[in-house]
Amino acid sequence: MQFHLNFPVDAIEPGIHYSDKILLMGSCFAEEIGAKLHEHRFNTLINPHGILFNPLSLTRAITSYLDGKIYTKDDLFQHQDTWHSWDHHSRFSGLTPEATLEQINTAQQEAIRNIEQADWLILTLGSAHAYFLKEGNQLVGNCHKVPAASFHKRLLTVEEVVSALDNVMHRLFFRNKKLNILFTVSPVRYIRDGVVENNLSKAVLLQAVHHMVNKFARLWYFPAYELVIDDLRDYRFYKDDMVHPNETAVNYVWEHVVKAAVHGSSQPLLHTIAEVNRAAQHRPLNPESSQHQQFLRTYADKVKQLMQAHPHLYWEDLLHHFGNL
């Protein structure tokens, strides 16, 4: 008997190589997959604006990179003694405008460079619900705990999402001729919007993304949403909030990412790095024992061999961990 639905995940060509530069943007699930790529030594830049949920805020952020925008104090506002940007996640907020702008523009400059050089842009759309300031009707990427009465919220239409994505795709491909774009829809269930409303939101995103993938070459869809919602389909694969996929679910999606999206020539290195990462997580009963010291030497030698074979990847933290810096 079979108690859950399996479905094939199509391979994505040309696939992700270790030589590629990868920019990931979007919801908190983008950070989960980005962290997995980073952990396995891929060259990643994750959410230069911080977590963004709705596609209009995402395309606004990408447009700011393409325009080379530098943020100024006029782009900030103050709330509860802290300075914020409506375009950015609260991780960029600071006690002074200068501190806030330094964080924002440091990330902005890195993103501006990256958008020109990236081989892959991975966009994870979280919600089609967007918030707008009542005063001026400005789109906000994060509400920063400003009272709800300051905003109006609405469900974006498929046409709005397609139009925003379409405009930015044309600009991206004009600027970066080698760029590949991989779309996912976040499996995080935004229950705060309501169960029915969350499903409507995901339906808008799925319809818009598939429209884009069918229209453009070098655009792909990876079914992270379907793997969690239709394949795993069980609350034991969610955290205690019953909203966010847990570590088991993230690892399950990651396994499919590796099989479908990472090029076959890069998979042996990925699996070797995964082995070294597991060794780095080992916690010995007796750190001073001869067996553990030999264990450290063995993996330090393995990391040095990897470093010689792949000098463009970052290895120093692993060398430090195994005691050879």
Describe the biggest sheet?
Answer: 5 strands, parallel
Across the major sheet, the strand order is 2-1-5-9-10
- Structural category: alpha/beta
Poorly predicted ranges? none
Count, helices: 10
Chain-averaged pLDDT: 94
C-alpha-based Rg, rounded: 21 Å
Morphology: globular
What is the terminal separation in angstroms? 54 Å
Number of beta strands:
10
> What fraction strand?
5-15%
**SSE string, helix = H, strand = E?**
EHEHEEHEEEEHEHEHHHHH
What is the percent of helical residues? 40-55%
In short, what is this structure?
The chain is of the alpha/beta class. The chain has helices spanning 28-39, 55-66, 97-117, 158-175, 195-215, 224-232, 247-261, 267-280, 290-309, 316-321; strands spanning 21-26, 43-46, 76-79, 82-85, 120-125, 129-133, 139-140, 151-155, 180-185, 219-221. The strands form 3 sheets. Strands 2-1-5-9-10 form a 5-stranded parallel sheet, with helices on both faces. Strands 7-6-8 form a 3-stranded antiparallel sheet, with no helix packed on it.
Features:
single chain, alpha/beta, 10 strands, 5-stranded parallel beta sheet, 3-stranded antiparallel beta sheet, 325 residues
Structural overview:
The chain has 325 residues and is α/β, with parallel strands linked by helices. It has helices spanning 28-39, 55-66, 97-117, 158-175, 195-215, 224-232, 247-261, 267-280, 290-309, 316-321, and strands spanning 21-26, 43-46, 76-79, 82-85, 120-125, 129-133, 139-140, 151-155, 180-185, 219-221. The chain has a five-stranded parallel β-sheet, sandwiched between helices. α2 crosses α3 and α4 (158-175) runs parallel beside α5. The longest helix is centred in the first third of the chain and has 21 residues, at 97-117. The chain is globular. The mean pLDDT is 94.
